[in-house]
Amino acid sequence: MAGRRSMDDREARKHNQLAQKIGKILDETRTSSATHNRKLKDLSSLLSQSQPHFFSAFTKTLAPLFDFQRRAPASERVVHFLAAFCRSCASGAPSHGTSFLINFLHFLLAAAAAASKTARFRACQIISEIILRLPDDADVGNEQWDEVIETLMHRVKDKVPVIRIYAIRALSRFVNGSENSDILDLFLEALSLEQNVEVRKTLLLSLPPSSATSRVIIDCTLDESESVRKATYCVLANKFPLQSLSIKLRTLILQRGLADRSDAVVKECLKLLKDEWLVNCCKGDTVELLKYLDVETYELVGESVMLALLKAGVVRLHDVDGIQKYTFSSSDNAGVEESGEFAQHNIQLVGAEVALYWRVICRHLLMEAQEKGSDAANAVGTEAALYAAEASDSNDLLERILPVTISDYIDLVRAHINAGPNYRFASRQLLLLGAMLDFSDATNRKMASAFVRELLLKPLEHEIDDEGNKVALGDCINLGGDREWADAVSALARKVHSASGEFEEAVLEVVEELAQPCRERTADSIQWMHCLSVTGLLLESAKSFGSVRSKAIKLDDLLQFLLLPGAKHVHLDVQRVAIRCLGLLGLLDRKLSKELIDQLRQSFVDGPPPTSRMASTALIDLLLWHGPWEIERASGKNPDMQLQDNQTSVNFSDVDETSSVELLHLLYAGFDRDDWIISVPSDESESIHAVLGEGFAKILLLSNKYPSISASTHQLVMVKLICLYFSDHTKELQRLRQCLSVFFEHYPSLSPKHKEVVSKAFIPAVKSIWPGINGNAGGSAHTVSIKRKRAVQASRFMLQMMQAPLYAKETKAGNGYNTRDSAETYDNSDESSVEWGEEGLGIRIATEVVGFPAKKTPAERSYISALSRILVLIKFRPTEQHAVKLMRRLLFYVNEAVSSEKDLSKELNRLAEHLKALDEHHDQEFSQEEANQILRRLEISFELDAGGPMAVPQTPVPGSARPTRKRRQARREEWSSDEELAASPTSVATGVPATASARSQRASKTAALTRMAKRETNIDEEDESEVSDVTSEEESDGSE
């Protein structure tokens, strides 16, 4: 027995000595990483000499590291040393090294599942370092790796971010394998849900390059964190070659990166563009890079890429022939990619990328020369001479790039135009070069003028369909079939005809020539569209009405013999372009003609949707430019400019009614046309509702410019825009929804009058959306639930508009500059703000709730319940004492109307206590005249007994005479009350909730049975589900 004890003592001493040696080695590795290689040999020697006891002594010595929370440099060196030691064990020949590694991994996995977050963190950190350093041929079985992977996948969902980071780093070693697709799915799921920036960044860096991850990684370029966006471009540069990405993804990456709000992200994107894509993938050839970007489709991206490279100094501009080498063929042009020759003029055709390349370079040199010239003019002495020399260098380089003569330039452009549609993009780029040429010489200007006339007279491109009809190519509105071509021709024409009135005269001569067959009614639809497109170019580019007056053709003749007949043409595209010209003519003419307005109104009413859409655009523009009063006066009407709620509908099939109604009423009635609501086109820009919505939003924003429009009209328009924004019919119209979201963000903050409009529109807007009331359709329980939720969203949205702070007023300081007041809101000390404040909105809601009869339908009960829940969110100010007193009176009746809802009554009680605290003279009597005065100011028709009670009524069920409840029962009811308060909307009232007396069991049961009986009776009477709240729990789940 004694011998066994002595043996155990010797074993313990050896174990302690071994642990001391291991501890001494680990302590020495804490001081410096330079000792790690030497200490690795010492620790490996101990492992080989003390194999049976080494692992237990090693883990015992290492235990304090798992309790050390701080990430100090000393502890980090120990972790790195442990990883290096495990790597040496896996690489060594003895089997005891592999055995130690497997045992150590099991030890770490047990620590990774510990309850202590410090132990989990240190275990995941060591596992991560070990896995990242292990060689590929490490002798570790698949079962051990499966156990490691399973544990780490659990730790990816750990609540501590740093643990998630190290678990993700460790799993990144396995995510590339096809058999570990579950790891990739976990990473993608975690990336979409992760809130921590560093964890998102680690996930992003750990994703492998593949078609499944490319889109997810590119979406991270929109991350809110700058470091994540910057890391995204690092990942794209290192893992995704240029050829592996589609054209759309390439352009999306550059479009977001070069326009990022952070300079660091832009720099990282530029590094990706220069070092990886340009140098490595394209061998430094900029034109080759542009070919990967499809500049014909993504022209703006290609232009931004060129400007970024020019700004970075990557593109070398010296010792180049420029565009001149394409004007004359020579023997040294064999290396040019587009080497097809134009036979007659010996001109070499260029591709789209080359044309864009030189157009951007020339524009850059021109702007640089102008900027340096301006700096030279503002400087003196040596600095001015330096700037002048730089401007001269830019001009000289520009001259070497551009064609030598105007004749060469015209021949070059004409050759590309005649080469067909494949060179259409290159032709437009070359046309834009004309703005950089000098046409001061009379001979050059005459030659260029003839070329411009040739461009204007060039017929529209068209095809012949199966029935032999001509079908125009392009948008059928602009010259050449697209907006960009028309702008290029217009820019060249204005450059050539730069003298005052010369441009208008030259284009009018072309219009007169093209209009001749239209006057004689011998023109086909293609000729009509060609003539009208040139007319539109003239009207759009003319500086004033006087610049086109008394020219080759009079505008009255243009209206009578071209535009009005074109608007009545049988061809739909001719109608559209003619109506566009009518709108442009109306904007140019200071005195509107009755024929023009009548034709636009007729096209809006009777035309098909594309024609009506163009007419609505023209009418909205004219209404904004001239004002509604001028338009009605031009039509011979004497308008009152006041929309009435019962007069907003217009019978579009009645000619007399549509011709007599005012334009503002007619456009407003367009929202309710059934055929326009049903036939919403796929292209959102062609939606009539989008045009009308944007137009009326502008009218409300600029309401101070149109005093003839009444305030009631503003209210109705606001109601319509709210309904339009929350309508199912407009959910696919992204442009309209974006426009309205920006409008709603700024409109209430611009003026107190705007807040008053929102306040007046609140009740009509919610009532027009709520199902089952005001003539609105109901539907199934699921449909009703969705509609109610939409109405609640609209009500909360309008409350946010009311609570938005007003923009500070701009005042003119003594130095003549506009400055902003330091206050965030308007100064309203001179007058009460109850009309546009939240107090007015609260009084409107309260009177609406109280105004319903005692016997209500289920839809009405849910409606007043939703309004009451908005009421408790309103903030009352102590400065509005009269409004506070009136609200205290109304709150008594509001609570009576919703007394069946316990949670809502509690919120109203809290609001009542809050209002009582705000009332500085709560004992003072509130007269009937004061109440009526506020109601008149708010334009509310409501009979209120100002002498009524102010105290909120208690629950109508009688109290109980039972003694104090048991502890468990009280606690259970307290939990239930807390849950009900958590489910109810957060109230801004800070008062103490009123205490209610306890009910007896029998009274509570009787009240519950009574409510259930009433509910069943109401369900039988109406085909609609009854809920005490806005929507039931079941309906909410179903709608989601």
UniProtKB/TrEMBL annotation:
Record domain Nuclear condensin complex subunit 3 C-terminal: where: 530-873
GO cellular component entries: condensed chromosome; condensin complex
Pfam family name, one: Cnd3
GO process terms (BP): cell division; mitotic chromosome condensation
Cell division is among the record's keywords: yes
Keyword tags: Cell cycle, Cell division, Chromosome, DNA condensation, Mitosis
Region Disordered, residue ranges: 946-1040
Localization per record: Chromosome
Main location class: nucleus
Compositionally skewed regions (Acidic residues) per UniProt: 1019-1040
Family: Belongs to the CND3 (condensin subunit 3) family.
Protein name: Condensin complex subunit 3 isoform X1
Gene encoding the protein: LOC116209364
